[in-house]
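Figure 2 data, in text form.
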Amino acid sequence: MSDMPDSGQSLTELRHQIDVLDAQIHDALIARARAEAGVYAARQAAGESVSPFYPDRDADVMRHLIERHSGDLPLVTVEQIWRGIVGGCTNTLTDYAVHLDGSAELTDMLDLARFYFGFSVELVPASDAADVVGAVTASPHDLGIVALTDRADLPWWRGLSDAGALVSARLPFVVMDDRPADLPALVLSKSPGLAETADVSVFDARWSDILPGKLMDQGIEVLSFFRSAAGVDAMIAVSGDLTEEDVQRACALAGAAPEVLRRIGGYAAPIDGDGASDEFGPEDEGS
């Protein structure tokens, strides 16, 4: 049941109440921006590297927001407002750009980038996913968004490494029916510590033969793959609790251990916005 206003209040009284709430929200936004600047200054004073994107913190805040949300205001509206606030604050503190994968529809990529990072950040279209990897690797703070497709035109994830760009988030983070900005994508950033602590680990795996057919049975999701005469390259996702040795064994049980296996990032497990939060689970392999 929705929270209805007191029917005894006049229109003037209700409008005044809204004005008071708007002023309180504005004051809170100003206070939040000051606190954000304080966090930024504290990190600099401690000698920590400063980033425009902290995916683990982002995920925690979104989980708490969803847990306490109630009423008729759509959850996706609350998410968009919150991300706009964070993006606006971040852009005043850190000079960065977001590079967009040119292999996807530009309008879809723009919608996704603006939803997650706001309208004030610079958006830079790239020719393809490999160019996004290169741009993020070459910059101290820039981010990248790469469209996630079952079959890739090239194994662009080979360019990811601890010394450069890594997978740091999967979009959309809050999954719900008929949501805007729902293009499946990965966010790339320089977040080497996240790979060891994320809910889901991402690996570059390569086989000289075909892709093992029972990866999904072993809890392995194939995010994307590329076939060539030399074999198959795959970007796979597994539970963050698994070690590299665990993943090798799981692949072997699925049909064949990969000749190459290296961690290339990780991300927070997506949240089911239409129900309870989901644990990590495999999806269609796309093989």
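Caption note: Residues 49-272 form one domain.
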